[in-house]
Amino acid sequence: MIDKKQIKExxxxxxxxxxxxxxxxxxxxxxxxxxxxxxxLCGFGELGVCCRNCNMGPCRISPFEDTxxxxxxxxxxxxxxxxxxxxxxxxxxxxxxxxxxxDLAHTLxxxxxxxxxxxxxxxxxxxxxxxxxxxxPVTDRTKEAIALDLAKAVYAEFGKQEGFLQFTRRAPEKxxxxxxxxxxxxxxxxxxxxxxxxxxxxxxxxxxxxxILQGLKASIADGWGGSTIATEISxxxxxxxxxxxxxxxxxxxKEDHVNIIVHGHEPVLSEMIVAAAGETxxxxxxxxxxxxxxxxxGICCTGNEICMRHGIPMxxxxxxxxxxxxxxxxxxxIVDVQCIMPSLxxxxxxxxxxxxxxxxxxxxxxxxHIEFHEEHGIETARKIVRTAIENYTNRSPEKVMIPDQxxxxxxxxxxxxxxxxxxxxSDPLIDAIKSGSVKGIAGVVGCNNPxxxxxxxxxxxxxxxxxNNVLVATTGCNxxxxxxxxxxxxxxxxxxxxxxxxxCQQLGIPPVLHMGSCVDISRILTLCAAIANKLDVDISDLxxxxxxxxxxxxxxxxxxxxxxxxxxxxxxxxxPPVLGGKLVTEILTKTANDVVGAAxxxxxxxxxxxxxxxxxxxxxxxxxxI
Amino acid sequence: xxxxxxxxxxxxxxxxxRSCTIxxxxxxSESNSLFGAISxxxxxxxxxxxxxxxxxxxxxxxxxxxxxxxCMSACICGAISRNEQGIPITDRDKCIxxxxxxxxxxxxxxxxxxxxxxxxxxxxxxxRDIPACVEACPTKAMVYETVEAYSxxxxxxxxxxxxxxxxx
Lengths: 626, 168
Prior knowledge:
The complex is a heterodimer. By secondary structure, chain A is an alpha/beta fold.
């Protein structure tokens, strides 16, 4: 017996309700079922007090003094274990973002050398701007020659041993001074990640404070290093996003089309798939197979990437990946890296859907593996699209159930696009903030997590912010949640407070600006740095705040750490595994203010989370005397 | 009256994760939540213990709810009596902290509350359908069943084993 009421509690999205009912009637298990089966969650894990870093253990510290051990076998206290575990999460998150950045640097290098197939340097303005940052000569040089030098320069940032990362120098001088004072100005991206692994090995860094500082250092190398490289080089290769209209939610799938979903993170793959799916030969082939055409859509950040550059619709966010297959209408789901559930293979076996893995780094036992390399980028993409088209004939029409819901959205607000929308200068935004019609800016980002009613955390928090005249910059799964709710439309300015509404209506922009994928949080950093530099203050002086209402991934931990390290107060909507360490909790929520001028807060109620952010913004406004 | 259920342990299933001990302490805290319980004073206490038998056996132990409970007859102040559910409970007002109950308990599952100087033990979680430790066990090593139902399941298991060996 399907409990509809219980299903409604899992998400605010009607497509999720419909697909979960279907899953239940077909006996298909989803993340929500597995979440329930996992209850109760392990308390040691929730508190972060278990350690598996050596083989004397595994050890776990009892949170109750006389109920069990208070120290690991090596003597590590709860705080040492919690700090080590936390910064290992940062290392993993920074590694993921930075490897994404490295892949883009590699694509740029191969393209500059003429060794890639299907890629070109699309944004010369950005290429030159970046070359200038690196002091690469640009006059009388071909774009390929400049790109080659730039590719080598950004590639070198990963393996750099000494010095600093160039893009960190976009931060205000006061910020850099702070980082230097506390020894957290990163030297090289990989070096800081490796140093975390070294320091958390048995018997190395046994000081929770020192451990956390290294965590912050690696996170800065992610945000201002690897992630910024990922964003900027993507713009050079595929174009800097500009506002474009699109649609979001499972309703973007089409019954009479070959449905291809690209899922994962790196535009290196998805850009080629989009290009191949637009080729006449392949469209003709799809028609020969009985389809009307080819319909590409995206899930997770790869969805954000192609949506903001091409207006390709977004099928859904993280927790909808299984549901997309359950529509029975997806002919191929093409995946690369990050946030791709291992459950997709088994679920796809209930339908005709082919899961096509493409990265040598990420294989799935029941997937078709078509390895993707830039040398044969477009050719491989054609092969993948052809595989999807051929699979269309295996689709059983009686198994197809596509939800109706899809919502219009306006996406593609890169920093450059925002400045353009403002009339080529950030002054109107700064004036609006000064006058108070825009109270401040909030970056709202992050994942989905079955611990929180799907999308409710995102939408309730964002609604509360715009109602209070806080302009929202969104990326990742929050961006998709907002898109599905219609918050990314200029028309939704009517949901905003009077001040923000007037500004949005005047500029024709939505109150929630889609800035891209999760690596594109670097765009929010760049925007904050530009505003701070203009006002000659530090980022921590600005009326800005961050939030990750439904976060779950290690990448999100790294993001949270670099946002706080950049001076931005950040509210987490799910409880991080740190509460078992009282000192660590104190550092993250209070003492961090003395080091980086910002700290974390945890609030599982999204409306209360928004109130914390608004109170913080008000405090910063008061300090600035505006 | 409904047949009394007991906590049984399938020792071969215990992996020694101590999830039961955390769940027990949280169930006996003021806030009834993990994140609240860890900062309570006095610290909530677990009534279940996980002992190690080298080289690789882990044994969760909890009050066996003995029918002829030695602790009840040994208590010099008559502080231990059975509640409505038939569970031996120590009346904290009567307990003088002489630890005789601890001395005679064959399982060593009665604890000393450092702050209140009173004895404490498993109360089978009176407010819950299933005791917190049983519910928390990720491997289902702890089972909450009537003696009859548990022994029946053991008989079934044994029958299968016997018939298998009979086939040779």
